[in-house]
Write a structure and sequence with these properties.
alpha/beta; Rossmann fold; 29% strand; globular
């Protein structure tokens, strides 16, 4: 079990996921125990195929485990209740993926407003975009933005609903190093200023230096769970 010094927001207990592909069964997760502490920035580190994305999808209520359970603030998620899972995702979880999934016909402001219109107490789109440093790009369309700017719009969209948890799957995977550092700085700022519990999936070991905690994955299992005694600022990262 991990050493969590902060109250847990999300907990995976003995989590397993098995896929069947024809006559072959693949174990993506094999009895994973993991807790994400309140306000903690955790990097989930491991090679492709190690189970990181599968875990993130289950924690976010996008996929169901084959065995085990997920608890949000002490309450088990019911993976048989699609309506409850939708409510959980809408109220408590923000997602950032490698690809930005922006609506090309909408401006940055309008892309963020898509989620703030259905949230109970959201940040204003302008406030969310200011948080990610895009005040001057509010009325630009995705085609007028760089890849890094589009990812920052995606982050603004994710945090505008004020989620308790932000789950990020390879958020710098499609970006060059310089742009990736800018995006990581935004995620660090969201974690510090909003106190959002944040998990970042990556195969890049350098990124782990910015985290409170590093959880290593291999073959569907947690193989390492360590706390960083000294966190690096994103601007200090080189890869």
């Amino acid at each position: 079990m991990s050493d969590v010094s902060r109250p847990p927001v999300l907990e995976a207990r003995a989590l397993a996921k098995r896929y069947r592909m024809g006559d072959v069964e693949i174990d993506a997760l094999r009895g994973v125990d993991l807790a994400l502490g309140e306000g903690e920035l955790t990097v989930l580190l491991g090679p492709s195929g190690s189970g990181k994305s599968t875990l993130l999808n289950i924690l976010g209520g996008l996929d169901a485990p084959s065995a085990g359970s997920v608890h949000y603030r002490g309450r088990a998620l019911d993976f048989t209740d699609d309506r409850a899972l939708t409510a959980y995702r809408r109220a408590h979880v923000g997602f950032v993926f490698q690809f930005y999934n922006l609506m090309p016909s909408l401006t940055a402001r309008e892309n963020v407003a898509l989620v703030t219109d259905i949230a109970p107490s959201p940040l204003a789109p302008e406030e969310a975009l200011a948080l990610v440093g895009l005040t001057s790009r509010l009325d630009h369309f995705p085609s007028q933005l760089s890849g890094g700017e589009q990812q920052r719009v995606a982050i603004a969209r994710a945090v505008a609903r004020r989620p308790d948890v932000l789950l990020c799957d390879e958020p710098t995977g499609a970006l060059d190093q310089r742009t990736g550092v800018v995006v990581l700085d935004v995620l660090d700022r969201v974690n510090r200023e909003l106190g959002t519990t944040t998990a970042i999936i990556t195969h890049n070991a350098v990124i782990a230096r910015m985290a409170h905690r590093v959880v290593g994955f291999g073959d569907g299992r947690v193989v390492r769970d360590e706390r960083n005694t000294t966190r690096a600022a994103p601007a200090e990262l080189r890869w």
